[in-house]
């Protein structure tokens, strides 16, 4: 009898519960598609496999309630759209059912969401009138780390102090642990000083082709692929990019024996290992820290030009002085101008900057490298007379910068814009002739210098220089 009642309940209860799948079809599928891959062939962001809906549910609940606007990266692809708030039309229990469905469908595997949880979050964001930006949401709820292509990963910790790599196979580890998420993390060591760690597993190369690996470490590490060491930093020193190394390696699709040995010689600790492969343009990290950072996970927030106008970014940028002003021009050309050295210092192609590294704890106070490729250093020091002062920049009607430097009585105006794959620089001076250095750099050609590295500007005359990547 008792069993019959239970059986009966098992049929009736689901009838009363909300059907998350149907509600998803009604409220979300127009934009995110029935298969969760994003409507109109991926023009809208996916929910299938999206880290935004994984991990703690706070992030997804807040986005569903209030919407999301502006640049956002989902599974390596950038979007810059607007999702209208859904909170007003979907009650707590229905939203809970939708998110429970989303978090457990199409390969997603995260815990259910309760109506009470949605209710609590709704109350906490009641006063909010506008959609979130990705930056705001990530500050509150960083993304969970993506799993890496490392499988069967085992970490081992050794107590002791070494100046050079010992043969770990002859030593007995203090502890050994499986790392199912494939993430290499020094935080996994129970010993915090004077220790060594090793990781062994398989790197599952997603495709056949050329791979690039990057290593930065405090203090020493060696990476082996297919049993051979191919990237190594010895000795001791900080992890700030100054000792960073890269290596290319040819891999066939499929598993390759992979191992990392790490030594903590003294002082601080850090380990960053990244990779790029066929069709993968931006660094993916095997470690919980990226290069140039501390130990907190990264959340990518690409900053890109919008509406045909350059994007502007001011922050600590690796490879230039503290007061750098960066412009990301439409078409993927970028400039970092140093307000300390009164000169353009870096130019690069491709992605502009990744704000995630600055806007999360990981990047606080750290220098972040340009997000793109082919970074070219034009100069590193000051060449104008000591009395020269930075007087800010103005934007022309298209949003392109005109940097202004005062030298005594006169002004030097240095304007930049992108044109058909080149950066065009115009220089003028207001009162008297001025000598200015135009350093050449490997990887680019500068048209308009007549092959000279020092040019004399005369008032009333504009010199136009065109920077072209070779
Ligand atoms: C009118 C179209 C539209 C509807 C309806 C819509 N979304 Fe979105 N959603 C978007 C867009 C566009 C973005 C990206 C916004 C941006 O670029 O900043 C987005 C982003 C998201 C994100 C974060 C990024 C990602 O892909 O994981 C989540 C989570 C999300 N939506 C969940 C939902 C849920 C759940 C529903 C239904 C309750 C829903 N959305 C309904 C258009 C929509």
Detailed description of the structure:
The chain is of the alpha+beta class and 470 residues long. The protein folds into three domains: 2-140, Cytochrome Bc1 Complex, Chain D, domain 2; 150-285, Sandwich (Jelly Rolls), CATH 2.60.120.1560; 302-469, no CATH class. 16% of the residues lie in helices and 38% in strands. It has a six-stranded antiparallel sheet, with no helix packed on it. Strands 21-22-23-24-28-26 form a six-stranded antiparallel sheet, with no helix packed on it. It has a five-stranded antiparallel sheet with strand order 15-16-17-18-20, with no helix packed on it. Strand 8 (220-225) and strand 9 form a beta hairpin. Helix 2 crosses helix 6 and helix 6 (92-103) packs across helix 7. The longest helix is centred in the N-terminal third of the chain and has 15 residues, at 2-16. The structure holds heme C (HEC). Heme C (HEC) is lined by residues 27-28, 30-32, 44-47, 50, 52-53, 60, 63-64, 68-70, 72, 74, 79-84, 86, 98, 102.
